[in-house]
Design brief:
Blueprint (H helix, E strand, L loop, with lengths): L1 H9 L16 H4 L1 E6 L6 E7 L5 E4 L4 E8 L5 E9 L2 E15 L2 E5 L5 E7 L6 E2 H5 L3 E3 L4 E3 L1 H4 L1 E5 L8 E6 L5 E5 L4 E8 L5 E5 L2 E9 L2 E6 L2 E5 L6 E8 L4 E7 L4 E6 L2 E7 L6 E4 L3 E6 L2 E6 L5 E6 L1
Parallel strand pairs: 2-9
Antiparallel strand pairs: 1-2, 1-8, 2-3, 4-5, 5-6, 6-7, 7-8, 10-11, 12-13, 12-19, 13-14, 14-15, 15-16, 16-17, 17-18, 18-19, 20-21, 20-27, 21-22, 22-23, 23-24, 24-25, 25-26, 26-27
Length: 313
């Protein structure tokens, strides 16, 4: 019973074969931090720290606490500790086969039951264990520490998938020269730059993957002209479809609080910014100017002054 606790904890995946190392492994060889990177997230890890004098500690496992370790005469690894859960604490001792060992790679097994590979880690920087994740922590590359993004970041909602229950977060450093953007799929560090008109944006130089900016009171995250996230999401979104004299459809999404309009034409997105007009509405960027009133609008290409008349469907 005691041994099965560790077996279940370690057997996340493995090669189902039986073999063992033929080389003598010493305690000095194994001293260090040994981690298994979780497949769902490269920052989420679990494993074990093997210290000198037979002391051990768990990495990323709050309910399985390693305390001691050692080697048997036939070079098998013995782990001892406590399993905590369901209101009780159970002491365990488990003996594992050292299937293979090569410098910074260690494979442990249990007969033919499972194989699991560990890699040696020199420090714990950037590692978020399962217990950390359960408490809402993630690793910030920019701040070089684990944080709760929902406590330290500004929340933005998806405008691409409004049904999503997930959100993105913007975390700034102390002087706002950098920010880290977190969403369910990735996180990226962006640097602050100034546009010719003096407004700040955050992106990666010579890279058009993400751009963060503030328009009115809204934080916006866009990519290649397509708006992905906004502080208010689609709360005040108004969609319109215009048709040209040639029968071409041009879709425009108006975000009132942010004062922006996203235009989609022939599969290409453009984000336009609202400006004051005597009547009607006006949105533009360095390439296009969209002026309209009622169901009529005019789209002007600023480079050559050409314009297209639009009528809302």
């Amino acid at each position: 019973m005691k041994k099965s606790i560790v077996c279940m904890a370690l057997a996340s995946a493995g090669l189902w074969m039986s073999c063992s190392t033929t080389e003598k492994v010493t305690e000095k060889d194994l001293t260090g931090n040994w981690i298994e990177v979780m497949p769902v997230n490269q920052h989420i890890v679990q494993g074990v720290s093997l210290y000198e004098k037979g002391e051990a500690a768990s990495i990323g496992m709050a309910t399985l606490q390693y305390q001691h370790w050692g080697l048997t005469g036939d070079s098998r690894l013995v782990l001892e500790g406590k399993s905590i859960g369901n209101g009780q604490t159970i002491e365990f001792a488990d003996t594992l086969d050292i299937v293979s060992f090569s410098g910074d790679t260690l494979t442990l097994g249990k007969g033919d039951m499972y194989r699991i590979q560990y890699v040696r880690r020199q420090d714990d920087k950037g590692l978020i264990g399962g217990s950390d994740v359960a408490m809402g922590y993630t690793w910030s590359e920019m701040l070089q520490k684990k944080i709760r993004v929902f406590e330290e970041g500004s929340r933005v909602h998806s405008v691409v998938n409004p049904q999503s229950s997930s959100a993105g977060y913007l975390v700034f450093n102390a002087d706002s020269t950098q920010l880290e953007f977190f969403d369910p799929e990735t996180d990226v560090v962006l640097d602050r730059r100034m546009r010719p008109d003096g407004t700040p944006v955050w992106n990666v130089e010579d890279d058009d993957t993400y751009l963060v900016e503030k328009s009115e009171s809204e934080w916006l995250v866009s990519r290649r002209g397509q708006l992905l996230y906004a502080t208010s999401g689609i709360e005040d979104l108004v969609k319109a479809v215009f048709v040209t004299d040639d029968g071409e459809d041009i879709e425009v999404a108006f975000f009132g609080k942010a004062g922006v309009a996203q235009m989609s034409r022939k599969g290409i997105y453009s984000l336009l910014y609202q400006y004051r007009t005597a009547s009607g509405y006006g949105y533009k960027n360095p390439v296009f100017d969209l002026r309209g009133k009622g169901q009529e609008a005019v789209l002007t290409t600023l480079a050559d002054g050409s314009h297209i008349s639009l009528k809302e469907k």
